[in-house]
Queue: 2 jobs
Job 1
Amino acid sequence: MVLIPALPYEYEIPSLDRVALVIIDMQRDFLESGGFGEALGNDISQLQKIVPTVKQILDTFRDRALPIFHTLEGHQSDLSDCPPSKLQRGQNQLKIGDMGTMGRILILGEPGNNIIPELQPLANEIVIAKPGKGAFYRTSLESWLQEKNITHLILTGVTTEVCVQTTMREANDRGYECLLVEDATASYFPEFKQSTLEMIRAQGGIVGWTTTSENFIQALSFSGGYVKNNKLDMSFYE
Ligand code: TIU
């Protein structure tokens, strides 16, 4: 069992074989100039700040050979999976499917739709393409989690109040115990991020828990030997 200091109270992972990392939409479309985020008029620098922290959490899961899911928001090139309401939304701005400086905006396979180079998935990590804001809507995520017997999800990524919160609420309704890593998630609007963290953990953890990357990484490193360079490192106990 691993106990992680968190809000509104300690988050308990019964056994590490029950936990998976979900990294939401750390894509060039949201973090780099010329993508969907900037096309919507947003300040992308807010999102770029969390990249090293997300990498640290990713490395923690990689070191322990725990399951890792990356999600990718994007649509088919013929836009058949994009409702007209989303295609038309907005005024005087680039829309889903329009040509941007990194290819067509929010279209799967376009350069801008890729995960940023710093967080590129490894071959054994699962990448879930999703047409919606939530990672459970019209995706294989739930069947993957069931197959791997996962009950506890550690969430990171962007943006806190849109795709991360939607996914966390979808997961919560399906019975998953969710922990959001505060400094590994970001919004274009810092005040929206703050409100989201507060609403998630309000009412006794109505949607789940939040913690810091330091709390999370420390709790895991104290929970037993960890796999380092593919060998079990027990030096902590020596
Ligand atoms: N616009 C915005 O804040 N977010 C999205 O459109 N997608 C995600 O959050 N990934």
Job 2
Amino acid sequence: MAILKSLEQSRGQGKKSIAVLVDPDKVDSPSELDPLIRLANENCVDFFFVGGSLVTSTNLNEVIKHIKENVSIPVILFPGSSLQIDPSADAILFLSLISGRNPDLLIGQHVIAAPILRNNKMEVMPTGYLLVNSGKTTSVAYISNTTPIPEDKYSLAACTALAGEMLGLRLIYLDAGSGAEREINPKMISAVRKAVGVPLIVGGGINTSRKAITALEAGADLIVIGNALEKDPNLLTEIADKIYDWNQSVKSTG
Ligand code: 1GP
């Protein structure tokens, strides 16, 4: 089934998903990823996200191929720019940075990417990307040259997401930025959740299972974890177990 459809279906059933983020810049050799790939497979991780706000290495293709050769978990591009398109991925988050006012990231990069995407079979997932302040300036805030939404302006986030949905975007991604000091406040997640019906992705600074569960309870459908797994890979098992329990309980009550 197409990935977007499966996310919509899970959302409809109240089921939660988890994605592991791999930043190709932090990978010297793809085989370094083997323990993480194994762990992701054992814990039934739903997706690999691959990308970063600034990818300076040239191993994007190698990283994606290595994941795909070893596991059947879908690989979704999470690109910082149209330069980060690789046809070996299963899908791409076609991100419009709607919390910002940088025209290049609202529509400019998309114009460049569109004809490339049309000519390959990668699934294109139109996504409203909202960057939220989380303490110190994150790479994505700096590189994107945009002002993140203040972390206590819940209605600003909700209205931005709503506008994104009205424009036809099919996913909303609330991101505190990779390695964020503070994860997204659950009040903001629930304000956005109430505002839109599309699946909601939440990430940035989720480094404990408590934070993961709080985000899911507040209304996230899919959580993304990157940095924290570098320090503590076992966190993945802890969080995946909780998501498994959640999904089982939904199944039995549904
Ligand atoms: C960043 O949402 C992702 O865009 C994941 O963030 O690396 O902090 O988990 P972390």
